[in-house]
Amino acid sequence: MKRTVFLVLSIAAALTAMAQGKAGTWSVMPRAGVSIASLTNSSIIYENADGESLETKPRTLLGFTGGLEVMYQTSDLVGLSAGISYVQGGCKYKDMMKKGDILHDYYVRMDYIAVPLLFHSHVTSGLSVKVGVEPSCLVRGKSHEEHLFFDEDAEGKRSNAHEIEMNENIRSGLRTFALSLPVGISYEYEHVVLDARYHVGLTNTFKGNASRRSNVLEVAVAYKFDL
Predict the structure, then answer these.
(1) Is the CB of residue 29 less than 8 Å from the CB of residue 223?
(2) What pTM was computed for the model?
């Protein structure tokens, strides 16, 4: 029994050593994936055809994330990384209907250049948890909406339908600097890293007094090049 336990522990230790970098080594990791973003306190109020005020809450918006990170292995179980990445944030809303107007494909998107600074702790073979800070700089902000206008008779029959697409640059109403708290988990196998991070927004996204903050979930794949 003792020999079996010793053998299992030896194999586990060997696998862990193989999966993690050695102390004092450097690695570079290009990564790409998807962002799933939302905005807090960003509900909108609209009136339907009956004059009733309704609240529409923001929904998650799918986007892109990608970049490059450099990691230094301070010990066999601890690493520090810094990088630069492109992250899309924002939110979208469900379709809304007013009298003679259907608003659809309505979303707000913000694009950032971010600098993730992370502390990595290796839990077990290939598995790591991470936490850090991420300052970001806004590079683009826009809103998009499409309207379907129509006439409607007493029987509900529609006519004279026409559609309008609207894009607005909202960069002037957004703060250029953002700060978030990223927490995440990753798994490495044969230098391929599957990575998931949730960014909790610490600063207001919009100018003014409204407390609207951006939260983003990133799911990405990276490849680790040892230097």
Answers:
(1) yes
(2) 0.81
